[in-house]
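Hi P.,

Sorry for the delay on this. The queue was packed all week, but I finally got your sequence through. Input first:
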Amino acid sequence: MISTAIRLARVGSRSELAAALLMGLGYPCVMLAALIPHIWFFAAATAVTYATDWYLHQKGSYLVNRLGKVRAGLSIRFLLRQLMVILLLARLDLAESPLFYSAVACFLVFYGLQAPHGALTTLIRLRRTMPVVTRNVDLHAVRIPDAPPGALLRRSAEKMLHLDIPAVVGILIAAGTGENVIGYVGIGLTLLLALLYLGLLFPYMRRGRLAPPAPAVLKAVDSWLRDYQPSVVLYFSGSNESAYQGNMWLDTMARVEGRPLIIMRERALVPQLAETSVPVLCVPAGTHLMNLDLSTVRVCLYPANVGKNIHILRVPTMKHVFIGHGDSDKLASVNPYSKVYDEVWTAGRAGRDRYALADVGVLDQDIVEVGRPQLEPIRSWTGAVKNPVPTVLYAPTWEGWDDNPGNTSLLLAGENIVRRLLNAADPVRIIYKPHPFTGIRSGKAKAVNARIRAMLEKAAAERAADPRWAKEASSAAAGQSAAKAEL
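Then the structure:
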């Protein structure tokens, strides 16, 4: 039941679900406390709404984004809470007091300051955005000034709105004690902090603090390309969830002969790229990419079939090779789009046969069997079990874009596989590694994935409490410590 509620609320955990429920109950309680009126009930309910709102933002909850879509966004929630403060003062017969007028004026001025704050943060982000994002690329030819501290721009709207806390606290204390000076101090502190925030942002609008113009940056990139002369490119583009498709090739790119380069297209994927010594160049704009000097590149490798591939497929001086991000029997492994490449590299004969059976226009002479570099560290079994309890890896693929049950074993067999492994006469350790896309299209696949995780968590907890496993755990501790140190 709780897992169903978590799924329906679009939150990631029980704590997020609890926070969402408390926030949903908190606002009606704030209104009720204002109408009664009861200051300390109001203060408690208000504190709950502040805390839960902050927690959900801290967790990056999807629910917070959905609230904005139904006109209950962050600014509206803060404004509603402040209106309830005004209502509380009116119900306490303070509507004619200086505190009441001071509170109204404070909140009006405070909201008036939101516009210049939002404009400043947006302009700073826009005017500091460079046409490229790089790693391991020397752009000494252009001067890139230091960015504002992350504390100023990260979740800036939320931070600015939370500056109303001193005013709200001061007004409530003043209303409860009759010490209006406390309310005036809180109001003054809120407005002072808001003005200080604006003052800290203004210096970053100066010309010397802005990013260099796009032509200068692109000129420096071309200069670096001429000096580096890349010969092999891994070209990667995709959705925010697809970073794994590029990450799996980083070690291989670091070992290739020649001068490797990774070209990406989405800024949001760059932070998700694992660490690598290979130069990384993210060029979001197609026009900028098509004007780069890539004349020294001889081979371009593509791990995914995406629309933005066209921006570099047009270059005739390099060989275009599709390497994919895994071979399987899904239809994606015989995509007719693969005809655009000069060659299609597969892990083995099965990949070649898939294209022959699918008859999608990929010529047999254009297919090259190259193995799978990611599997190189794996050694064949020698007949001796290294650990007394063997480890079994279950790594099912995702459900695909259609309802073909052959896409993934999860739907028809996943739970039975895990259950039988858990109940095996000879105990085994289970590593469950579902595809990163599992459940993005099929609710059934998402539910099965959740049930398997719950089964494994329960089994792990039971084994941890079973003294029979204590010896095995202690014997594996050294190996686990070594593995953690290596990671």
